[in-house]
Amino acid sequence: MENQLSFSTDLRGKIALVTGGTKGIGKAIADQLAQAGAQVIVTARNRPADSDSTHSFIAVDLTQADQVTQLAQQVQDTYGRIDILIDNVGGLTTPGGGFQALSDQDWEQELQFNLLATIRLDRALLPLMQNQKSGVVIHISTGAAKQPLWNLNLAYSVSKAALNCYSKALANEVASQGIRVVAVSPGAVKTPLMEQFLEDFARNEGIPLEDAFTTVMGKMSGVPLGRMAEPEEIASLVRFLASPAASYITGVNYSIDGGAYPIA
């Protein structure tokens, strides 16, 4: 008898964990997964100021191996399973200026935050998915991994490019166990971190804030849609990819950048 496939985007009964889920893209993803019916756990280093959040919260620093182990144990003890893992935590934490401006500490910091934190958490939680023979892992990457700007985000771009390679390899490894792994690469998104980046860039370059976006986007061949994405636009793609409707999608990296990437 053939397997009965579901093409629904309904996530009722699913347990989802979103790292960096208290603001920006992570919060938008957590909210949309919950709207689809999932029970959502969010993690961050600090408890969110939004006390009205309906999501469960676990404080954790994913760069610390012992805290990741504790997180995985807490998820197992409390929920007994994990169906959707959104590795969203990451960001640009190092200065621009090219390779000579970056110290060993800068490189290590960026790799810890944007690559090793994800690998560490996957290693801790994927055994639950392997036991249940199902699950979805989505890594939030960046378009900068394909279009690095040497004078703005070199270490960040390199760390996320490594994440893309890891995502493909992991997808191939666990596909036969019923687990899908997908990467999503946003372009410029209107988040507090991006707004702060543009403010810093404008100040350092001595240009008006309204010119900063145009200048930065121009370095990436521009954005045909002419604007930054809203976090909810990224979240809507993630919501679909996490659902049964995307059951035959794995090992793929989706660009969602308003057309900024210059090749097909």
Q: Would you give an account of this structure?
A:
This is Short-chain dehydrogenase. Belongs to the short-chain dehydrogenases/reductases (SDR) family. The protein is α/β, with parallel strands linked by helices. The chain folds into two domains: 15-187 and 230-256, 3-Layer(aba) Sandwich (Rossmann fold), CATH 3.40.50.720; 189-228, no CATH class. The chain contains seven helices and seven strands; from the N terminus they run βαββαβαβαβαααβ. Strands 3-2-1-4-5-6-7 form a seven-stranded parallel β-sheet, sandwiched between helices.
Indicate the topology:
Elements lengths: L14 E5 L4 H12 L3 E6 L11 E4 L5 H15 L4 E4 L16 H29 L2 E6 L13 H21 L4 E8 L5 H14 L3 H11 L11 H12 L10 E4 L8
Parallel strand pairs: 1-2, 1-4, 2-3, 4-5, 5-6, 6-7
Protein name: Short-chain dehydrogenase
Family: Belongs to the short-chain dehydrogenases/reductases (SDR) family.
Organism: Siphonobacter curvatus
Structural key phrases:
single chain; 264 residues; alpha/beta; Rossmann fold; seven-stranded parallel sheet; Short-chain dehydrogenase; NAD(P)-bd_dom_sf; SDR; SDR_fam
Q: What's this entry about, in short?
A:
This protein is an alpha/beta fold.
